[in-house]
Every structure is written in C-alpha cells, then in structure tokens.
C-alpha cells in the first residue's frame, strides 16, 4: 500500500468526519458552479487567463525586470531569492537589523514552502499567522490541509478545544460566532503590537510594480495598516501579470472559482511604501525556473492557487489534504511535489529525493479530468499526472510489484486475443471462486468493494451472437 493510501485510510477511519469533509468540499464545488454559470463568457475568460499566463511564462525574466524597475521607482526594495533558505535569511536579516521580534503574517503558501515560520521562531522571532484557519493550525502545530481552506480537516468541536487550550475560551464551547469573536480579540492585540507584517502575493502587476493581495478576512490589510513599520511581501516569480487590464481577468476568475464568491472581500493593491514604513518584496525562484524549462510541466506554473482542483477531486475529498504529505495537496500538488523544494541539498539529489518521496502522488488520481475542467487557467492537470506516472515508472521510482503487474496488464490490454481469454478466465474465476479468495484481509481492493456478478459472455461474444441471429 502506498504512503498516500495508508494516510488516506487513516483519514477514512473516522467515517463521519470523512463524509463531512467530502460533502463540504463538494458543496464548495457546487457553489463555484453556480457562480461560474452567472458569467456568460466564462470559457472566454479562462482562455484569456491561460494565454496571459502563457505570454508571461514565455517572457518571464523580462516581466520580472519590468516589475522590479516599476517597484524600485516607487521606493520599494526588491530582493530575489534563489531558494527557501535565501528567502528566510533575507527576511531574518531585515528583522534582526531593526531589532524587530514581533511579526504578523497573512496566509501565504510560499512561506509554507520555505518553512519560514519555523525558521523565524527558531531564531527568536514571534510569528503570528493572522488568517483564522492558519492561526488554528498554527496553534495545533499542523500544516494546512487545503490551500484556500487550511483547517478544513477540523470540525468545530476540535477548534473549540484548541481555542480553550490556547486562548482560554470556555471548555466545550464550539459555537463559531463565539470562537470567531475570541479569535478577533486575540488577533487584535497581535496586530496592534506587531513590528513587521509579512504577506503573500496573489498577483504582481509588472507595469506598475503593484502587489495584489486577496483575503476574505482583511487580515493582510490589518497587519499592514495597524502598527507594523516593516512590510514584506513574498511572491513566487510566476505571480506576475503584465498589466491592470490582465489583472481584471484574474480577479474575476479567482474568487468565483475558489469559493463561489463574486470577488474576494478584500482585493488590496500595494504600490508605494506608507509614510514612515519600509516596503520590501522578495521574489522567490525555488525550482520554478527548472519547471519553466520543462516542456511537460511548465504549464503548472500558471496556477493561481484557487483550490478548485482539490474541491472537485474525488481522491482529495475522500483522503484529506494531509494524506498527500506535501504542502500543496490534491491534483496540482501531486504535479509539483515530485519536483521538490527541499533545502540544503544539491539540485540533483533534491530532485531524486522528491521523486522518490512523492512518487505515489501522481497515482493518487482517477484521471477523470475533473481537475482540468475546473481549472481557471486551463492547466492540463490530469494529463501531467499521467505523464509523471510514465516518468516515475521509467525511473523505477514505483514499487517493483506495481511495475511487474502493470507490465503484465499492459501486455494483456495490448492484445485482443489475450484480453478476450483473460476476460473469460476472470469471469469464470469470479463466479466459481469461494468468496474468501476475493474478500479477505490481504486484498485491500476486495475489502472496499463488492464485485457485480459477471455476465456469462463478454460484450464481444454477445455482439457476435446477436449479429448472427
Ligand atoms: S491547478 Fe488550477 S484549479 Fe488547481 S489550484 Fe491551480 S489554478 Fe486552481
């Protein structure tokens, strides 16, 4: 059993939570469908978004230079980081050199990618995640299980217990309104005492040097506008959009596709440093250039992190985000994970290591294509997963048993004669075998399914027989 299957099995052992998780995310998917159906030119928007990203990827370095120049002209300090270690060091130096020890941070998958929280905490900095879901999992020492809904794996009773232990809400209180009010009081004091604010970036407009941050809670804006004097925005190099006109396409797509909202509650543009404040932008590569050079997986850099491919994926919904063991779970995470972004290892061994560690993830998909059909930037997700399977199999990164079985099955499927004999034998075997041979503890497949009674003849046999008569 693969690691993903084992972790998924653990998640499924709590049946009521697993079915609630499945239903909730499917509810988000349905909300998304309703929001999308209200836009007549949705497919045109997707097409445009995809082609804008294509243009950006074709000329990425030029657009980054344009963005950097625009931002510098605005008085912003721009840094480039080759990898997570560099990004962490840049931020730590900025904080240390000013003697700052209190930081508020809004949601950013990129800082998760670099393990920034751990690094700063290890170096004596207090980092408070201010997105409610992120704060909950920070309290619990967990990683996000979804890129938009980081605490979706938790039920409100669990959150109530966490809040009781960490911020003293009454024992047994699981009322969302009371818990949210308590979180608000708790976070307000953090906002008012923060010396620095760190944010992620949803889009970076090359023509103006503007960073755009989308949140529903307004927490990024609170962090940047309350008391912090040092503002640091962390972005992946692929976040660039050329113009404000292009940005409008993405802001129409993002919230609708992510949560079914017409627009995120706060879509904030930051261009100039505030009076008495410093504004820094750190642009991270961390393996993105390598992915850009890869003709098969390059398109995965178009991702705008809406999370829709997770909400729709039957495997993600039923196995939970933590079963993927990678910071970005679900279909898009399964494409990125084998590339890897480990720190402190050479590029080659890093890649081999990640291919080995996450070799099961591209197989955690039914390849139904639902992910590709909801993707707002038209990434061919299921096709890339299929490509990874072939690459990993060629590189012998999948188990020898799986390879032998697949080779064997491949031979049967490639031959009409063998396929029809194998079908005959399988139908007979299922009919006459004692149940225990299929439904036993050693056969995980049989444990979860009841096979239908096989027909006496195959479709081919039926067709030949009925055509004759
Ligand atoms: S791959 Fe597409 S659907 Fe999935 S998170 Fe990225 S943009 Fe959204």
For the biggest β-sheet, the strand order reads 1-10-7-4-2-3
Q: What fraction, in percent, of the residue positions are helical?
A: 40-55%
- List the bound ligands: iron/sulfur cluster
Number of domains: 3
Work out the radius of gyration: 25 Å
Q: What is the global morphology?
A: globular
Within the CATH hierarchy, at the fold level, what is the topology of the largest domain?
A: Rossmann fold
- CATH architecture descriptor text of the largest domain: 3-Layer(aba) Sandwich
The fraction of residues assigned to DSSP E strands is 5-15%
Which structural class should the secondary elements be placed in?
alpha/beta
The largest sheet, given as strand count, sense and whether it forms a barrel, is:
6 strands, parallel
**What's the name of the CATH homologous superfamily of the largest domain?**
NagB/RpiA/CoA transferase-like
Give the N-to-C terminal Cα separation.
48 Å
Annotation, overall tally of beta strands: 10
């Amino acid at each position: 059993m693969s690691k993903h299957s084992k972790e998924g099995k653990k998640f499924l052992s709590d049946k009521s939570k697993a079915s609630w998780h499945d239903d909730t995310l499917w509810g988000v998917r349905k909300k998304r469908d309703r929001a999308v159906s209200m836009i007549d030119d949705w497919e045109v928007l997707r097409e445009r978004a995809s082609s804008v990203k294509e243009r950006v990827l074709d000329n990425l370095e030029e657009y980054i230079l344009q963005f950097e120049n625009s931002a510098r002209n605005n008085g912003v300090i721009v840094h480039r980081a080759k990898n997570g270690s560099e990004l962490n060091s840049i931020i730590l130096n900025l904080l240390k050199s000013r003697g700052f020890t209190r930081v508020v941070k809004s949601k950013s998958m990129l800082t998760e990618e670099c393990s920034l929280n751990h690094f700063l905490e290890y170096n004596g900095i207090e980092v408070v995640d201010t997105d409610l879901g992120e704060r909950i999992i920070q309290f619990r020492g967990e990683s996000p299980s979804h890129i938009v809904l980081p605490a979706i794996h938790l039920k409100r009773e669990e959150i109530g217990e966490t809040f009781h232990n960490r911020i003293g809400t009454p024992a047994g209180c699981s009322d969302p309104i009371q818990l949210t009010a308590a979180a608000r009081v708790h976070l307000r004091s953090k906002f008012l005492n923060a010396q620095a604010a760190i944010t992620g970036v949803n889009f970076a407009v090359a023509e103006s040097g503007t960073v755009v941050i989308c949140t529903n809670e307004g927490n990024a804006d609170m962090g940047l506008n309350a008391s912090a004097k040092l503002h640091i925005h962390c972005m992946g190099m692929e976040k660039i959009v050329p113009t404000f006109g292009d940005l409008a396409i993405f802001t129409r797509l993002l919230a609708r596709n992510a949560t079914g909202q017409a627009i995120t509650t706060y879509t904030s543009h930051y261009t100039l440093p505030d009076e008495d404040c410093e504004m820094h932008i750190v642009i991270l590569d961390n393996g993105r250039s390598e992915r850009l050079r890869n003709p098969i997986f390059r398109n995965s850099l178009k991702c705008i992190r809406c999370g829709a491919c997770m909400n729709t994926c039957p495997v993600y919904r039923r196995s939970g985000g933590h079963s993927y063991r990678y910071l970005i779970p679900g279909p898009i995470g399964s494409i990125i994970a084998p590339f890897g972004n480990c720190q402190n290892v050479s590029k080659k061994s890093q890649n081999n290591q990640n291919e080995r560690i996450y070799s099961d993830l591209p197989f955690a998909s039914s390849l139904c294509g639902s992910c590709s059909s909801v993707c707002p930037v038209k990434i061919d997700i299921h096709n890339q997963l299929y490509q990874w399977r072939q690459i990993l199999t060629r590189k012998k990164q999948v188990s020898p048993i799986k390879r032998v079985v697949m080779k064997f099955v491949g031979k049967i499927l490639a031959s009409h004669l063998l396929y029809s004999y194998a079908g005959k034998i399988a139908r007979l075997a299922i009919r006459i075998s004692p149940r225990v041979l299929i439904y036993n503890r050693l056969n995980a497949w049989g444990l979860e399914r009841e096979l239908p009674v096989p027909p006496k003849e195959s479709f081919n046999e039926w067709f030949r027989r009925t055509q004759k008569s």
